[in-house]
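Researcher: Good morning. I'm working through a list of sequences from a screen, and I'd like to move beyond sequence-only analysis. For each chain I'm collecting a predicted structure so we can compare shapes side by side. This is the next one on the list. No need for commentary yet; just the structure.
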Amino acid sequence: MKRILACLVLLLSLFSTAKAQLNVYYVDVGQGDASYIELPNGHNVLIDGGPSAEPIYKFLKSKGVTTIDHVVLTHPHSDHYRGLKKVFAAFNVKNYYDSRAENVEAAGDNNLRELAAAEPGCATHYPEAGDNLNWDSRVTVKVLNTCSEPVQLKYNDDVNNCSIVLRFYYNGTGMLFTGDAESAIENAMMRIFKSGLQSYALKVGHHGSRYSSTDKFLERVQPKVAIISVGVDNVYGHPHKEALDRLTAAGAKIFFTLNQTQTIFLPAPKKGVEPQVIGPLPYDPEHPVQPELEALIYTPAVMAPDMVNSPALEQLKQTAGN
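Model: Good morning. Structure tokens for this chain:
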């Protein structure tokens, strides 16, 4: 009897440990963004949904998902919100997180917000920079940037810089999700949050654009792993070689979502167990594993200047003053 009880205790312990793992999936959605996270408490999070319905729908169905506890739209650009329309149509969504940035050049973002408002039992939230989101008692989820005040935006840079930026912290490990935030916001977050940016894994800003991932920002984040969500032969030339060079110089192993969903497992707290990255070999500037990267055209690095009138910057300054 004692032996049976001991076996049951061991099985329960193993089950509890497995359940306490945090899993992050950087989903292959083409030229866009979507990250799916399974929290230790069994709840789940979807950050953005990619540029079309089918990729994110197929991924979630393959995971057996029927309900999503937390859906986040980082900012109102179509390569981030279009897939979320299918998510609201096909799955039960409990909570929706949004900025108050209005992209006046698009109507689809408003359609998505109407779907969220019409979703039965779904609450809409507008987090503020500095907020901690209570999604799991064992995981710290901090908001590092957003536009929480209503603002009408026309230019792409302004919309990008209203991105909701989130940092997850679990088992001594940080995971940073930057949306399409550009260098101006990176600089502001460094001034405000300082060492609170350090993270094992960085979801690289703006699909590896040269206007994100500055040397100083990477020095502060200290990423061991950098994941770039990007589509094959995209018209923007993402990822830009300047960004790849800076990430490589920072010591990060670079992974892409080119025809491959990338996965990171964060195990339950246990001494000596490191996070695992599951996927193909990372990018090697000396021996590229993906031939299309060899054709990248190098142009002089030009970082986007701090935009004095950027609504996102003004709101971050208010956060720093509180």
